[in-house]
């Protein structure tokens, strides 16, 4: 997938889905769907998969992207930094930091991601100028898709209907996608009673964050359309794990990654190089394990770590990138009297996790 900031060389003309898309959850996927090419390639996915994979080290290798004169590029246009971060000055933790967002969009078949630098200039554009300068002039947009609650332009003064009216002046059709709701918790509920995490049953980034904060992986998985995952490189720890018979791969996560409830989880793990060019069903390299997110009070830990112990695995994992899917929250972290007591508890965690993971998958 081609990733560029506005002002850099872009693939045009485009069919554009507009939004923040943090999480690339089920609602976001509905908004992106109308701009994808209906032509499905042999392997059952959109033709975005034929395009080169984004490499954070080489984000601008345009020469590797095939060009075609009659092609309309399916393009997600988003803001970077997150507008809330720009206005509050506070860094915002994200469900999908950039690399993960790229990976999710690529797997949906999106061909290009355009990052609009959310700065004073962009935030001051009127809705009319946003359409004219960004969508028409820069992106040569031919089709647009947005969610029903989309707002844009200075002080968020334009809404989805305004976008439709302004874009019509350029003959650009706008699909307004209704808000996706989650009523699955209430299969017999004809009144659309919302569940605990979804305001009015709405699938939203904040409802997913709330479910992750309390360790409700079932709801998070349902709203995302996939399990919540942590992607990171394996770095060295204190080398204590192996002494108690539970070596743990310590993950270094992007600084802006949103962390779920601290504690112990049953997880499924993929070594990234194995998964990067395969569809979910082809994830043959899946491994099962347990993960702890926390401060390790038993060993007087002073900073928080994310550590994964894989079942039936004994090789070196240092420097590898792991994708860890959080399947079930097992328990909060505890301070044990000694390492022996911690070891006994981890043994129990493993038994419970294995039982659950083998039952579920
Ligand atoms: C499944 C699992 C559960 C854990 N639970 C706790 C816990 O409840 N309390 C705690 O202090 N540390 C806990 N830990 C963290 C251990 O203290 C840590 O793995 C050990 O100190 C080894 O650290 P190292 O990888 O830096 O060598 C847990 C680790 C795992 C893998
Ligand atoms: N089953 C396993 N699960 C996780 N890591 C393993 C496993 N077997 C071997 N390893 C390797 O051992 C390392 C963890 O050992 P550990 O003693 O906990 O050291 P560290 O404190 O550096 O994490 C991992 O980073 C990985 O390279």
TrEMBL record:
EC number: 2.7.1.26, 2.7.7.2
Keywords attached to this entry: ATP-binding, FAD, Flavoprotein, FMN, Kinase, Multifunctional enzyme, Nucleotide-binding, Nucleotidyltransferase, Transferase
Top EC class, one word: transferase
Superkingdom, natural source: Bacteria
Compositional bias annotation for Basic and acidic residues: 47-56
Keyword field contains Flavoprotein: yes
Known catalytic reactions: riboflavin + ATP = FMN + ADP + H(+); FMN + ATP + H(+) = FAD + diphosphate
Pathway entry: Cofactor biosynthesis; FAD biosynthesis; FAD from FMN: step 1/1; Cofactor biosynthesis; FMN biosynthesis; FMN from riboflavin (ATP route): step 1/1
Region: Disordered, residue numbers: 42-69
MF terms in GO: FMN adenylyltransferase activity; riboflavin kinase activity
Compositional bias of kind Polar residues: 58-69
UniProt cross-references to InterPro entries, sorted A to Z: FAD_synthase (IPR015864), Riboflavin_kinase (IPR023468), Riboflavin_kinase_bac (IPR002606), Riboflavin_kinase_bac/euk (IPR015865), Riboflavin_kinase_dom_sf (IPR023465), Rossmann-like_a/b/a_fold (IPR014729)
Domain Riboflavin kinase: residue ranges: 223-358
UniProt record similarity statement: Belongs to the ribF family.
Protein name: Riboflavin biosynthesis protein
């Amino acid at each position: 997938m081609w990733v560029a900031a506005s002002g850099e060389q872009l693939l045009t003309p485009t069919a554009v889905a507009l939004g923040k898309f943090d999480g690339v959850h089920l609602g976001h996927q509905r908004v992106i769907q109308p701009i994808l090419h209906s032509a499905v390639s042999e392997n059952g996915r959109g033709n975005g998969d034929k395009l080169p994979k984004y490499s954070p080290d080489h984000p601008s290798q345009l020469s590797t992207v095939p060009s075609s004169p009659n092609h309309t590029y399916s393009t997600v246009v988003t803001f970077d930094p997150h507008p809330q971060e720009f206005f509050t000055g506070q860094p915002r933790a994200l469900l999908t930091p950039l690399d993960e967002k790229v990976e999710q969009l690529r797997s949906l078949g999106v061909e290009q991601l355009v990052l609009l630098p959310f700065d004073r200039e962009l935030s001051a554009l009127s809705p009319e100028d946003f359409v004219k300068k960004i969508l028409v002039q820069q992106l040569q947009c031919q089709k647009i898709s947005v969610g029903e609650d989309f707002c844009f332009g200075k002080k968020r003064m334009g809404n989805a209907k305004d976008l439709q009216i302004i874009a019509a002046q350029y003959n650009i059709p706008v699909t307004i996608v209704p808000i996706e709701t989650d009523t699955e918790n209430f299969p017999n509920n004809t009144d659309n009673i919302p569940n605990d995490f979804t305001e009015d049953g709405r699938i939203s980034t904040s409802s997913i964050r709330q479910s992750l904060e309390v360790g409700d992986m079932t709801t998070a998985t349902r709203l995302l359309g996939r399990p919540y995952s942590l992607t990171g490189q394996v770095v060295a720890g204190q080398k204590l794990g192996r002494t108690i018979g539970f070596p743990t791969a310590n993950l270094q996560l992007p600084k802006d990654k949103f962390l779920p409830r601290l504690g112990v989880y049953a997880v499924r793990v993929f070594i990234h190089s194995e998964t990067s060019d395969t569809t979910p069903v082809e994830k043959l390299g899946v491994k099962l394990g347990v993960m702890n997110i926390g401060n390790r009070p038993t060993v007087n830990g002073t900073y928080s770590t994310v550590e994964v112990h894989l079942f039936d695995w004994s090789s070196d994992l240092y420097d590898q990138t792991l994708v860890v899917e959080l399947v079930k929250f097992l328990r909060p972290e505890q301070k044990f009297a000694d390492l022996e007591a911690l070891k006994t508890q981890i043994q129990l965690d493993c038994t419970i996790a294995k039982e659950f993971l083998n039952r579920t998958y």
